[in-house]
Amino acid sequence: MDTTQTLDVDATSVASDAKQYLTFLLDEAEYGVDILRVQEIKGWDTVTPLPNAPEYVRGVMNL
């Protein structure tokens, strides 16, 4: 086996050990979740306002 083949095998080993994350921003802070734990990505939907809720609560939505 020549040097090039050895380097290719090592690069493949590193790539298979790499993890993937779903990242998102929340109030200017970045968070990440292991992609294997993500079950669904849902877009923004209409929100039902809640009476007497604090100002920072927009409401609720069905998931």
Automatic annotation (TrEMBL):
Show the SUPFAM superfamilies listed in the entry: CheW-like
Task: List the InterPro entries hit by this protein, alphabetically.
Answer: CheW, CheW-like_dom_sf, CheW-lke_dom
BP term (GO), one = signal transduction
Q: Which residues form the CheW-like domain?
A: 18-63
Keyword Transcription tagged: no
Main localization is cytoplasm
Carries keyword Cytoplasm? yes
Which GO cellular component does the record give, naming just one? cytosol
**Keyword tags:** Cytoplasm
Q: Which Pfam families match?
A: CheW
Q: Where in the cell is it found?
A: Cytoplasm
Spell out the protein name for this chain: Chemotaxis protein CheW
Which organism does this sequence originate in? Tectimicrobiota bacterium
